[in-house]
Fold this sequence. Notes:
alpha/beta; 253 residues; Rossmann fold
Amino acid sequence: MSFNSKLLTPNSKLQTPNSKLQTPNSKLSETDKLKAKYLRSSKKMEWHVTDAQSLAIIDSEIGDHVFSPAEYEIVRRVIYATADFEYKSLIRFSERALQAGAAALAARTTIVVDVPMVQVGIAYDIQNTFSNPVYCSMEALTRPQKEKTRAAWGIETLAKRYPEGIFVVGQAQTALTALVDLIEAEEIRPALIIATPVGFGNFDQAKARLQDSLVPHITIENRKGNAVVAAAIVDGLVDLAWQAYGQDRNRGS
């Protein structure tokens, strides 16, 4: 069954390990229900009961929303990581961003990140699911460039090496601008871009240019954002992709 049919039908219910299908707003008053809904298998992030209780609080306080079940899971992860409910109104998903990202993860598409904090934040889930290669722009071996920051030059170098990769920009605004320049020059066609750097000045224009492109993307409106938000989005997407594709991968191995 496809990722779309499993997780992205607007009125569908999220499938969770060792439990019946439940909607995000189901009542979770018992500890066993909390564990059943949120604890992950050994192949995925392990959730403690206190994490489950925190997520249940988010469910009870978030109020009405128009997100699909899969989008809601991403939003909830971001709120959990930041304790900031404003992200509910700031996160933006392009059409089919989650489907494209999940398929790319399942295909072990290379992931390129802008800073080590994002790399560390996603390492556990990636290593315990699809094992995608992950490279950081700050660690790319490049010649010094006075015209560009290290992050921008590094991500440009890696983008040309992996033009159809998944790109995660959590902090370096110049890295996002470099990616958008390459997209507009038709030098790369990423599977997905997750862009959550803090936005000041002309860097908001880079987000707008990305949103005008045909590249699947997840972004944060306004000036908010950071590497923690980017990592939370990736981890949520990995969990959703593993629900949709993980069992098929296990059968094929």
